[in-house]
Amino acid sequence: MRIAVAQIDSVVGAFEANVRKIKEAYQRACSKGVDLLLTPELAVCGYPPHDLIERSEMFERTERAIEDLRAATKGQDCVLAVGHVARNPREQGRAAQNVVSLFEDGRMVFCQAKALLPTYDVFDEARYFEPAQEISVWNWKGHPIAFSICEDLWAQDSSFGRQLYGQNPIDRYREQKVELLISLSASPYVRGKRDRREEIHADACRSLRSGLVYVNLVGATDEILFDGGSFALDSQGKLIGRLPIFKTSFGILDMPLKGESFESHWEFPRGEDREDVSPSEIDVLFRGLLTGVREYFKRTGFKTAVIGLSGGVDSSVVAVLAVNALGAQNVLGVAMPSQYSSSHSLEDAEILAKNLGISLEVRPIKFLFSVASRELAQGLGDLQSVALENLQSRLRGMILMTLANHRNSLVLTTGNKSELATGYCTLYGDMVGALAPIGDLLKTQVYELGRQMNQELRSPIPERVFTKAPSAELKPNQTDQDTLPPYEILDRLLADSIERGIPADELEKKYGTEMKLKDSGKISWVREILRRLEVNEYKRRQAAPVLKISHKAFGVGRRIPIAKFWDQ
Questions:
Q1: Is 509 designated active site?
Q2: How many domains does the chain contain in total?
């Protein structure tokens, strides 16, 4: 069977553009003598559509799009497999289903709804969709072929420590003696997930003694990244080939079915490529964050970004991302030194801006801070230190937002996960902005990514940025480690708590209680950090969307009450 894989970047709600991409891929497939073209999960409306599904226009627009695609197959032998939203044919249950439909010569020849609906992390599909009542297979020239939709092949995922579903579609496929397994997916990127994803599908191949072709969405919707990396496996679960990661792509696969003896092989038309050798995870992370920034601006209609440059590693990494995603001409750096700023902070910001080729405006806040602090202190006496520190940050946020409004730009925030976790950030100050590109990277991971950027891009970030002590520079001689543990220790603790869910007692045993933190009182440093994690939930609820790269990011996939009692 000759199969084409269209790894496209469907945009949520962009029905006409998405249909155009599908039709272009279909025309390419027809010209190459392809039997079957595959597109990703919900390719027609984009993924995830969230509460747009509750609008009646979702069905109307989808049905017009499907009619357009059906008509495009008239007179063609190539079968088009397309993922879309459909009305639930039953009166009971949710109004919509997540389906894959097959069209051939102007007719629908097969349709299958998604059976397993994930309701964890960023997924909330049971809120919108009704699961499949039956699992069928498509008979192509006497060969039974199964069409699964993403989660349908993840029933045996052991990472949860328990089985999430009461059924496994693979059991039904086995009963129907499936010869080929197709998976249409919109599987989000998570650092380190790709190997597990391919191994789960390899297990399905070995269980069914069937080959598999997997097509994944590429691009980004808000904070969710989709890495593509579509692939094919033989009946032993061995990788036949993989499409590029974080890149739209088109490939053709000749896949043997029962009774055919030829070897599977990929064909890539001119301008297309493959990525069979897995790149390093830090390289994939870099590509993913670039995709997230680029797609966020493109899909919201903005072209230019404003970034506060402090001379530190966080703002430097965000600036490199912005330049490579949007172009240097579309990025403005703003340095806002105060009386507490070191000379090297401005110097490093200037060197970075020059290396990146971006405009840099220097707007000191000394006068603004003096006037504002004096006026605000009237009738109050001396302001508390934390109020004075946050006032500086909020003045900087005001400047950034004003410049962004004037330029019709978006502000990119520069906070990392370590800061967001511990509340080492200021509402309406350094947290202002439209997107947090590194908000799911712990501080040590930001350094790692910055080093990778310097390797790949001829060292745009000054070396001193990596070697000087991290500091917010909001009072004399301040460093982050005045009130935080060393980041090498803090980040391991945060990863264990946030991403692995290890309880406080076990964390104390693992990390010890000897270290003391300023103003932590009688509780251990471990419990003090966990306390800060809990009490700063209200800040994170108001933070910019965070590009998700871990199993548990702050944002849509982590829902913790703000008003609660949760003693650490």
A1: no
A2: 2
Exposure on the CB side of residue 396, measured as CA atoms within 13 A: 35
| pLDDT tens readout for residues 360-398 | 999 999 999 999 999 999 988 899 999 999 999 999 999
Using DSSP's 3-state secondary structure scheme, residue 241 falls into: strand
| pTM of model > 0.90 | yes
- Do 112 and 186 belong to one domain? yes
CB 532 within 8 A of CB 518: no
**Residue 473 has what pLDDT?**
80
Residues 18 and 158 in one domain: yes
199 part of the active site: no
H or E, element range at 526: helix 525-535
Q: What is the pLDDT of residues 441-494, one digit of tens each?
A: 999 999 999 999 999 999 999 999 999 999 988 888 888 888 899 999 999 999
286 has a pLDDT exceeding 90? yes
| DSSP letter string, 211-239 | EEEEEE-EEEETTEEEEB--EEE-TT--E
Specify the amino acid at residue 376: L
Continuous segment of H or E residues that includes residue 305 = strand 305-308
341 and 220 part of one domain? no
The answer as to whether 527 is a domain residue is: yes
What gap in Å lies between CA 502 and CA 199, rounded to an integer? 26
150 is catalytic: yes
* Domain extent at residue 75: 2-278
- In sequence order, the 6+-apart residues with CB closer than 8 A to the CB of 390 are 426, 429
Q: Which of 30, 45, 78, 150 is catalytic?
A: 150
Task: For residue 347, tell me if it sits in a domain.
Answer: yes
Q: Tell me, yes or no, whether 518 and 470 share the same domain.
A: yes
In the set 78, 104, 114, 151, the catalytic residue is 114
Instruction: Quote the percentage of the chain above a pLDDT of 90.
Output: 88
Encoding tokens for residue 249? 């792509």
HEC readout, 317-350? HHHHHHHHHHCHHHEEEEECCCCCCCHHHHHHHH
Residue 560 is assigned to a structural domain of this protein: no
Are 334 and 356 contained in the same domain? yes
- Could you say which of 21, 30, 41, 104 is catalytic? 41
Residue 227: phi and psi, rounded to 5, are -95, 0
